[in-house]
């Protein structure tokens, strides 16, 4: 059997990607919201890609951010290159909009399930690749944009294959090969002869119809075709007696219907046979020619797949640059330290929702989790913005390590190895777990797995049980994070008693969400004090 084009398996080194467990992915609504929709997720908020392959690559990068500082910065360099040249970015995106999905077309073709339109998609995608290669090489990207230079190189030269497919494929293509009519005129003389014979015979049919109209004196006589009878002569019942039958007559009765009488002749039968043979031979020959084209394509599948991957990379870099330019995202500083400093950080999804509804502007907040104050304890009323603040800092890390600019005035992030988020809980009754049980399992996972390089976000630990039990659990979790995990953490709570720990835990800092009271109202400022 046939195999699809598969890239060589590559071993991903332990710790090469930012680890994010399923609970955290769900809590942070990375690719789907809690209700299961794509709209409203982080992915849908940042996705400016133009091609299908670009969209899939963006999703893959978001799902597995990097931890290697050099690799992250190489991606950021590429995004910055497109950020700094809006005209080039627009031209690249304009070219990409004409690109077909080479990856999918190549997969189907390699499996023997491709049709003529898949070959055309590969051809058109490679044409775009060729134009983009020329465009980027003319620009001579600076050495800093190594990822762009590499992508341009991998777009490869496919002029011969493009020219071949251009000559071979007709302009209007059917979906399936079995329909025929997809090989261009002039590509195969033998095929052209068979098609001419078939089409000329069809003209002879029209001549035969005129001849029978005259012979019978029935101007409405028609020669028709269906898949059961093949070609036949048809007249209305009122004219049926004008068609002579019997000895010496060329007409043979075939079928009587309420609305028509149908006849045949030996002459029509012979002509129909010629048409059928020519059409069948043409179709067989077309299938052979198609297989020849498929072999040409599959023989170069590695180079074509490389070009497809490079187009997707360019799409993602240009899309992330477009996002950054339009929404005033900043390039994050990424290094191997344990810093975590965000100035004017914003929540990418909430900010987009606010701008879409032209409601009030998003209120940015700073966050500094340097070693001396790596554990923040946040208090404040419901609706004050604690959960938004918690999530936005986790999302900024994920975006930064994916290779994207971030929604902030500035950001300096020492690479994070794992992100843990425990924000709100629902029953998982299918597995026999109550809200409290879900919360405890997720909290235990965090306390057992977080390292000094991790970022931990905890919201309302211990809410699902009795007050003092919950307070004890939150108290113990806070002490464990400070003393054992030593990680950067944001811990939101309603237990104000926890602020007493500030005197005992050296790296713990207390912050509260600011609220103003008006005569009859409470105003949430969405800011920290």
Question: What would you say this structure looks like, in words?
Answer:
With 529 residues, the protein is α/β, with parallel strands linked by helices. It is 47% helix and 15% strand. The two termini are 66 Å apart. Helix 3 (52-63) packs across helix 12 and helix 15 (435-449) packs parallel to helix 16. It contains 16 helices and 15 strands. 38% of the residues are buried.
What's the short story on this structure?
47% of the residues lie in helices and 15% in strands. With 529 residues, it is α/β, with parallel strands linked by helices.
Strand content: 15-25%
> What spatial order of strands do you see in the largest sheet?
1-11-12-13-9-14-15
The amount of helix comes to 40-55%
Q: State the low-pLDDT regions, or none.
A: none
Question: What class do helices, strands and sheet pairing give?
Answer: alpha/beta
**Termini separation (Å)?**
66 Å
Task: Looking at this protein, list some descriptive labels.
15% strand, 15 strands, elongated, alpha/beta, 529 residues
How is the secondary structure organized here?
Layout: E1 19-20, H1 22-27, H2 42-46, H3 52-63, H4 69-83, H5 86-96, H6 102-110, H7 116-139, H8 146-154, H9 159-168, H10 189-216, E2 222-226, E3 230-235, E4 252-256, E5 261-264, H11 266-298, H12 301-327, E6 333-335, E7 340-345, H13 348-356, E8 365-368, E9 375-379, H14 386-402, E10 410-414, E11 418-423, H15 435-449, E12 455-459, H16 467-485, E13 488-492, E14 508-518, E15 521-528
Parallel strand pairs: 1-11, 6-10, 9-13, 9-14, 11-12, 12-13
Antiparallel strand pairs: 2-3, 3-5, 4-5, 7-8, 7-10, 14-15
Helix pairs in contact: 3-12, 4-12, 5-12, 6-7, 6-12, 7-8, 7-9, 7-12, 8-12, 10-11, 15-16
